[in-house]
């Protein structure tokens, strides 16, 4: 790898972005997983968790961590699971 100033700075910036993206992605996945675990339990708690999960997915799109079509797919699948779990009672 070259050792010019611009390359060194780009590597620093890229590393910072990678760590931020990882944090955002991790938070998103955690919230989606929490909703999946809550399916079949209290409806109010499930509703709150679903709103948080969808919000974190949208935030990841806004920050460029995931593609908008992937976000739509995640939200669609999550909503399907939640609705199936509520009717399955």
Count of extended strands: 0
Rough outline:
elongated
Q: How much helix, percentage-wise, in residues?
A: over 70%
- Please give the radius of gyration in angstroms: 18 Å
Structural class: mainly alpha
Number of domains: 1
Q: Could you tell me how far the N terminus lies from the C terminus, measured between alpha carbons in angstroms?
A: 59 Å
What share of residues are in beta strands?
under 5%
Order of helices and strands: HHH
**CATH class descriptor name:** Mainly Alpha
Show unreliable segments.
Answer: none
CATH topology: Methane Monooxygenase Hydroxylase, Chain G, domain 1
Largest beta-sheet characterization: none
- What's the number of helices? 3
> On the 0-100 scale, what is the average pLDDT?
93
> Based on the structure given, which CATH architecture is correct?
Up-down Bundle
Supply the CATH superfamily name: Ribosomal protein S20
